Amino acid sequence: MLNGIHFLLSYACNMECDHCFLFSGPYAKGTMTIEQIKSILKEAKELGTIDNVYFEGGEPFLFYPVMIEAIKLSKEMGFNAGIVSNGYWATDPDDAMVWLTPLSDLGISDLSVSNDSLHYGDSKETPAEIALIAAEKLNIPTYSLCKEKPEIKEHEDKDHKKGAPEISGGIKIRGRAVEKFAADLPKRSWEEFNECPYEELENPKRVHVDAYGNLHMCQGISMGNCSKTPFSKIAKEYNATKHPIAGPILSGGPAELVRKYDLKIENEFVDACHLCYTARTALLDRFDEFLAPKQVYGL
Ligand code: SF4
User: 4-85+150-154+171-297, which class in CATH?
Assistant: First the structure.
Protein backbone atom coordinates (compact mmCIF):
# COMPACT_ATOMS: atom_id res chain seq x y z
CA MET A 1 0.00 0.00 0.00
CA LEU A 2 1.31 3.43 -0.98
CA ASN A 3 1.85 5.35 2.24
CA GLY A 4 4.57 7.88 1.45
CA ILE A 5 5.20 10.69 -1.02
CA HIS A 6 8.66 12.20 -1.37
CA PHE A 7 8.49 15.61 -3.01
CA LEU A 8 11.54 16.38 -5.14
CA LEU A 9 11.10 20.05 -4.31
CA SER A 10 13.76 20.83 -6.88
CA TYR A 11 16.41 19.07 -8.93
CA ALA A 12 18.67 22.04 -8.17
CA CYS A 13 21.37 21.54 -5.56
CA ASN A 14 24.32 23.61 -4.34
CA MET A 15 26.44 20.45 -4.72
CA GLU A 16 27.06 18.15 -7.69
CA CYS A 17 27.91 14.82 -6.08
CA ASP A 18 29.52 11.95 -7.98
CA HIS A 19 26.96 9.47 -6.67
CA CYS A 20 23.80 11.54 -7.36
CA PHE A 21 21.23 9.37 -9.14
CA LEU A 22 19.20 12.43 -10.19
CA PHE A 23 22.00 14.39 -11.85
CA SER A 24 21.21 17.27 -9.49
CA GLY A 25 23.45 20.32 -9.46
CA PRO A 26 23.47 24.13 -9.41
CA TYR A 27 22.06 24.38 -12.94
CA ALA A 28 19.50 21.56 -12.81
CA LYS A 29 16.00 22.71 -13.77
CA GLY A 30 12.66 21.62 -12.29
CA THR A 31 11.44 23.30 -9.08
CA MET A 32 7.96 22.75 -7.64
CA THR A 33 5.52 25.55 -6.96
CA ILE A 34 3.37 25.86 -3.85
CA GLU A 35 0.26 25.32 -6.03
CA GLN A 36 1.66 22.02 -7.32
CA ILE A 37 2.47 20.87 -3.79
CA LYS A 38 -1.02 21.83 -2.58
CA SER A 39 -2.68 19.94 -5.39
CA ILE A 40 -0.65 16.75 -4.79
CA LEU A 41 -1.31 16.92 -1.04
CA LYS A 42 -5.05 17.18 -1.77
CA GLU A 43 -4.81 14.15 -4.04
CA ALA A 44 -2.86 12.29 -1.35
CA LYS A 45 -5.72 12.96 1.05
CA GLU A 46 -8.17 11.73 -1.59
CA LEU A 47 -6.21 8.48 -1.96
CA GLY A 48 -6.50 7.97 1.79
CA THR A 49 -3.46 5.74 2.31
CA ILE A 50 -0.67 8.33 2.57
CA ASP A 51 0.54 9.13 6.06
CA ASN A 52 4.00 10.55 5.53
CA VAL A 53 5.53 13.08 3.17
CA TYR A 54 9.15 14.11 2.70
CA PHE A 55 10.64 17.19 1.10
CA GLU A 56 13.95 16.63 -0.59
CA GLY A 57 15.77 17.33 -3.84
CA GLY A 58 18.23 18.40 -5.01
CA GLU A 59 18.56 20.52 -1.92
CA PRO A 60 15.22 21.68 -0.44
CA PHE A 61 16.75 24.36 1.84
CA LEU A 62 17.66 26.33 -1.32
CA PHE A 63 13.90 27.02 -1.52
CA TYR A 64 13.43 27.68 2.18
CA PRO A 65 10.16 29.70 2.07
CA VAL A 66 8.52 27.17 -0.26
CA MET A 67 9.73 24.30 1.93
CA ILE A 68 8.34 25.96 5.08
CA GLU A 69 4.97 26.54 3.40
CA ALA A 70 4.93 22.94 2.15
CA ILE A 71 5.60 21.58 5.65
CA LYS A 72 2.90 23.86 7.07
CA LEU A 73 0.33 22.67 4.52
CA SER A 74 1.28 19.03 5.10
CA LYS A 75 0.91 19.31 8.86
CA GLU A 76 -2.43 21.11 8.53
CA MET A 77 -3.64 18.22 6.40
CA GLY A 78 -2.55 15.66 8.99
CA PHE A 79 0.59 14.20 7.36
CA ASN A 80 3.88 13.47 9.09
CA ALA A 81 6.44 15.62 7.31
CA GLY A 82 10.20 15.09 7.05
CA ILE A 83 13.09 16.68 5.19
CA VAL A 84 16.25 15.33 3.55
CA SER A 85 19.09 17.86 3.24
CA ASN A 86 22.85 18.03 2.85
CA GLY A 87 22.98 20.57 5.69
CA TYR A 88 24.99 23.16 3.69
CA TRP A 89 23.14 25.97 5.46
CA ALA A 90 24.49 25.07 8.92
CA THR A 91 27.55 27.32 8.75
CA ASP A 92 27.38 28.23 12.45
CA PRO A 93 25.76 26.50 15.46
CA ASP A 94 23.63 29.51 16.50
CA ASP A 95 22.55 30.25 12.94
CA ALA A 96 21.62 26.59 12.43
CA MET A 97 19.17 26.98 15.34
CA VAL A 98 17.62 29.96 13.54
CA TRP A 99 17.19 27.90 10.35
CA LEU A 100 15.64 24.99 12.26
CA THR A 101 13.43 26.68 14.86
CA PRO A 102 10.50 27.27 12.42
CA LEU A 103 10.67 23.59 11.44
CA SER A 104 10.71 22.52 15.07
CA ASP A 105 7.70 24.77 15.74
CA LEU A 106 5.86 23.10 12.85
CA GLY A 107 6.63 19.68 14.34
CA ILE A 108 8.59 17.96 11.56
CA SER A 109 8.93 14.25 12.15
CA ASP A 110 12.46 13.77 10.78
CA LEU A 111 15.47 15.66 9.50
CA SER A 112 17.77 13.36 7.53
CA VAL A 113 21.14 14.91 6.73
CA SER A 114 23.81 13.64 4.34
CA ASN A 115 26.99 13.59 6.36
CA ASP A 116 29.77 11.77 4.55
CA SER A 117 32.96 12.19 2.58
CA LEU A 118 31.07 12.23 -0.74
CA HIS A 119 29.50 15.51 0.38
CA TYR A 120 32.20 17.00 2.59
CA GLY A 121 35.49 15.27 1.75
CA ASP A 122 37.78 14.92 4.77
CA SER A 123 36.44 17.98 6.63
CA LYS A 124 36.46 17.48 10.39
CA GLU A 125 33.51 19.62 11.48
CA THR A 126 30.98 19.48 8.67
CA PRO A 127 27.88 21.67 8.26
CA ALA A 128 25.94 18.39 8.36
CA GLU A 129 27.23 17.73 11.89
CA ILE A 130 26.34 21.26 12.99
CA ALA A 131 22.85 20.77 11.52
CA LEU A 132 22.36 17.45 13.32
CA ILE A 133 23.50 18.87 16.69
CA ALA A 134 21.17 21.89 16.34
CA ALA A 135 18.26 19.62 15.40
CA GLU A 136 18.87 17.42 18.42
CA LYS A 137 18.87 20.50 20.69
CA LEU A 138 15.47 21.38 19.27
CA ASN A 139 14.21 17.81 19.78
CA ILE A 140 13.82 17.25 16.05
CA PRO A 141 14.28 13.53 15.29
CA THR A 142 17.38 13.18 13.10
CA TYR A 143 19.03 10.65 10.85
CA SER A 144 22.58 10.84 9.55
CA LEU A 145 22.90 9.53 5.98
CA CYS A 146 26.36 8.12 5.26
CA LYS A 147 27.51 6.74 1.92
CA GLU A 148 31.09 6.28 0.80
CA LYS A 149 32.98 5.94 -2.47
CA PRO A 150 32.36 2.38 -3.68
CA GLU A 151 35.33 0.04 -3.33
CA ILE A 152 35.89 -3.71 -3.43
CA LYS A 153 35.29 -5.10 0.05
CA GLU A 154 38.08 -7.12 1.64
CA HIS A 155 36.74 -10.48 2.81
CA GLU A 156 37.58 -11.34 6.41
CA ASP A 157 38.46 -14.80 5.14
CA LYS A 158 41.56 -13.97 3.10
CA ASP A 159 41.32 -17.22 1.11
CA HIS A 160 37.76 -16.39 0.00
CA LYS A 161 37.53 -16.95 -3.73
CA LYS A 162 33.93 -17.87 -4.43
CA GLY A 163 30.98 -15.69 -5.40
CA ALA A 164 30.61 -12.16 -6.69
CA PRO A 165 32.96 -9.52 -5.26
CA GLU A 166 31.23 -7.36 -2.67
CA ILE A 167 31.33 -3.60 -3.00
CA SER A 168 31.37 -1.26 -0.01
CA GLY A 169 29.96 2.25 0.31
CA GLY A 170 26.20 1.66 -0.01
CA ILE A 171 25.96 3.33 -3.42
CA LYS A 172 23.89 1.96 -6.26
CA ILE A 173 25.56 2.35 -9.63
CA ARG A 174 23.03 4.45 -11.50
CA GLY A 175 22.75 8.08 -12.59
CA ARG A 176 25.97 10.06 -12.30
CA ALA A 177 27.59 7.16 -10.37
CA VAL A 178 27.77 5.19 -13.64
CA GLU A 179 30.05 7.84 -15.18
CA LYS A 180 32.07 8.39 -12.02
CA PHE A 181 32.58 4.95 -10.48
CA ALA A 182 31.65 2.05 -12.79
CA ALA A 183 34.95 1.92 -14.70
CA ASP A 184 37.00 0.97 -11.62
CA LEU A 185 34.69 -1.67 -10.18
CA PRO A 186 34.46 -5.42 -10.91
CA LYS A 187 31.67 -6.47 -13.25
CA ARG A 188 29.55 -9.49 -14.06
CA SER A 189 27.56 -10.70 -17.03
CA TRP A 190 24.19 -8.98 -17.53
CA GLU A 191 22.46 -12.35 -17.42
CA GLU A 192 23.15 -12.65 -13.69
CA PHE A 193 20.94 -9.73 -12.70
CA ASN A 194 17.57 -11.44 -12.51
CA GLU A 195 15.92 -9.40 -9.79
CA CYS A 196 15.63 -5.88 -8.48
CA PRO A 197 17.20 -5.99 -5.02
CA TYR A 198 15.74 -2.77 -3.65
CA GLU A 199 12.37 -1.52 -4.92
CA GLU A 200 8.90 -2.95 -4.38
CA LEU A 201 7.70 -2.31 -7.91
CA GLU A 202 4.64 -4.52 -7.64
CA ASN A 203 3.22 -2.58 -4.75
CA PRO A 204 5.30 0.55 -4.10
CA LYS A 205 5.14 1.94 -0.57
CA ARG A 206 6.44 5.35 -1.55
CA VAL A 207 6.83 7.41 -4.71
CA HIS A 208 8.89 10.47 -5.52
CA VAL A 209 7.09 13.28 -7.32
CA ASP A 210 8.91 15.99 -9.27
CA ALA A 211 8.09 19.42 -10.70
CA TYR A 212 7.14 17.87 -14.06
CA GLY A 213 4.53 15.65 -12.41
CA ASN A 214 6.45 12.37 -12.75
CA LEU A 215 5.74 9.79 -10.05
CA HIS A 216 9.00 7.88 -9.70
CA MET A 217 8.86 4.34 -8.28
CA CYS A 218 12.63 4.21 -8.65
CA GLN A 219 14.43 7.30 -9.91
CA GLY A 220 13.61 7.67 -13.62
CA ILE A 221 10.88 4.97 -13.67
CA SER A 222 7.55 6.77 -13.70
CA MET A 223 4.24 5.27 -12.59
CA GLY A 224 2.48 8.09 -14.45
CA ASN A 225 2.35 11.85 -14.69
CA CYS A 226 0.16 13.65 -12.17
CA SER A 227 0.15 16.88 -14.15
CA LYS A 228 -1.91 14.93 -16.76
CA THR A 229 -3.82 12.43 -14.60
CA PRO A 230 -4.80 12.92 -10.96
CA PHE A 231 -2.33 11.36 -8.55
CA SER A 232 -5.00 9.31 -6.75
CA LYS A 233 -6.23 7.83 -10.06
CA ILE A 234 -2.70 6.84 -11.13
CA ALA A 235 -2.05 5.22 -7.75
CA LYS A 236 -5.39 3.35 -7.72
CA GLU A 237 -5.09 2.09 -11.29
CA TYR A 238 -1.40 1.14 -11.24
CA ASN A 239 -0.87 -2.42 -12.38
CA ALA A 240 2.79 -3.41 -12.39
CA THR A 241 2.33 -6.27 -14.86
CA LYS A 242 1.06 -3.81 -17.50
CA HIS A 243 3.87 -1.30 -16.91
CA PRO A 244 6.43 -1.67 -19.74
CA ILE A 245 9.43 -1.24 -17.41
CA ALA A 246 8.27 -2.42 -13.96
CA GLY A 247 6.57 -5.51 -15.47
CA PRO A 248 9.71 -7.03 -17.01
CA ILE A 249 11.88 -6.07 -14.00
CA LEU A 250 9.42 -7.85 -11.73
CA SER A 251 9.35 -10.99 -13.83
CA GLY A 252 13.11 -11.33 -14.41
CA GLY A 253 15.02 -8.37 -13.02
CA PRO A 254 16.83 -5.82 -15.19
CA ALA A 255 18.12 -8.72 -17.32
CA GLU A 256 14.53 -9.22 -18.47
CA LEU A 257 14.53 -5.69 -19.97
CA VAL A 258 17.44 -6.82 -22.15
CA ARG A 259 15.70 -10.05 -23.17
CA LYS A 260 12.20 -8.66 -23.69
CA TYR A 261 13.27 -5.64 -25.74
CA ASP A 262 16.14 -7.45 -27.45
CA LEU A 263 18.69 -4.84 -26.41
CA LYS A 264 22.20 -5.09 -27.78
CA ILE A 265 24.00 -5.04 -24.45
CA GLU A 266 27.61 -6.12 -24.73
CA ASN A 267 29.18 -4.85 -21.55
CA GLU A 268 29.31 -6.36 -18.12
CA PHE A 269 27.82 -4.57 -15.14
CA VAL A 270 28.71 -3.73 -11.56
CA ASP A 271 25.29 -4.34 -10.03
CA ALA A 272 21.61 -4.73 -10.91
CA CYS A 273 21.05 -0.96 -10.90
CA HIS A 274 23.95 -0.42 -13.33
CA LEU A 275 22.36 -2.83 -15.82
CA CYS A 276 18.85 -1.47 -15.15
CA TYR A 277 19.94 2.13 -15.70
CA THR A 278 21.86 1.24 -18.89
CA ALA A 279 18.97 -0.78 -20.32
CA ARG A 280 16.49 1.98 -19.50
CA THR A 281 18.70 4.57 -21.14
CA ALA A 282 18.54 2.49 -24.33
CA LEU A 283 14.71 2.47 -24.06
CA LEU A 284 14.21 6.18 -23.35
CA ASP A 285 12.76 7.15 -26.71
CA ARG A 286 10.53 4.10 -26.86
CA PHE A 287 8.93 4.61 -23.44
CA ASP A 288 9.36 8.33 -22.82
CA GLU A 289 6.16 8.48 -20.75
CA PHE A 290 7.47 5.87 -18.30
CA LEU A 291 11.17 6.77 -18.33
CA ALA A 292 11.16 10.39 -17.31
CA PRO A 293 12.40 13.01 -17.05
CA LYS A 294 15.36 12.64 -19.40
CA GLN A 295 17.51 14.85 -17.17
CA VAL A 296 17.79 12.05 -14.58
CA TYR A 297 19.47 10.07 -17.36
CA GLY A 298 22.03 12.83 -17.75
CA LEU A 299 20.38 14.19 -20.90
S1 SF4 B 1 17.63 0.85 -10.68
FE2 SF4 B 1 16.38 -0.95 -11.31
S3 SF4 B 1 17.33 -2.66 -10.19
FE4 SF4 B 1 18.01 -0.78 -9.17
S5 SF4 B 1 16.53 -0.39 -7.54
FE6 SF4 B 1 15.82 0.74 -9.34
S7 SF4 B 1 14.39 -0.66 -10.37
FE8 SF4 B 1 15.62 -1.90 -8.95
Answer: alpha beta
